[in-house]
Amino acid sequence: MSKDDYDTYRLGEWHLQSGTILPNAHIAYKTFGDPKAPAIVSISDNIWLIGEDKSLNPDKYFVIIPALFGNGQSTSPSNTKLATAFPKVSFYDNVRAQHKLVTEHLGIHHLHCVLGWSMGAGQTFQWITQYPDFMDLAVPFCGSARTSLHNQVFLEGVKSALLAAKGIPSAGSKEGGVTGEGVHEKRVWTEEEKMVGLKAFGRGYAGWGFSQAFYREKLHEKHYGYRDLESFMVGFWEGWATSKGTSEYQIRMLFSALG
């Protein structure tokens, strides 16, 4: 979803799976199509699938895109007073909030489909577990029901790149913070630290976000129109990474690690 083009639904005091409470919680969402059409919940960054000539045709379906807690639009470190002490939020907590949005706010009591990519795929599996009779179809793609050790290693790498800009070792970090003698994890990020850390995060992600074949065939030039690899790293990967806050990425990595 774009920065400001979305609606919100107030959840109030949201009791989390961990036993803590997310105060004054809200979930951000965007819809496409006629609410009377068969409804589809499309989780996490799938707007590219929506269009008259695409799989999620708003002329045929009512498409609902909910935002994750911690993504910068739903309740997140950047829009609450919880910037340095954001509670542990799980896929279970997100899916329960999405179900409440769909049923109590949008008045829908059965879905045609739930689908999701990457972290959205993990939540699609969670939907199947929590509400198995609520949808006709479930389509998780390019994701897993649990985060593998190999994926956790990848997350540790990009997390290290992000935290290094603040002078914080990734070892011992958890739940968006870092513990250890002499470590000041709760100090506010400076703007310079944010930019350095987020750009490093984006460059670290670049080798995992697209395949070897993508780069070998120079699709960054042929498909995206960049003149060379460096301009692609700056324009695409650094641009993508700096579109979110540092705390939002830490929370998203925590979600993935807990998946």
TrEMBL record:
GO molecular function ontology, one term from the record: acyltransferase activity, transferring groups other than amino-acyl groups
Domain named AB hydrolase-1: residues: 48-136
Family: Belongs to the AB hydrolase superfamily. MetX family.
Record-given protein name: AB hydrolase-1 domain-containing protein
Organism this protein belongs to: Alectoria fallacina
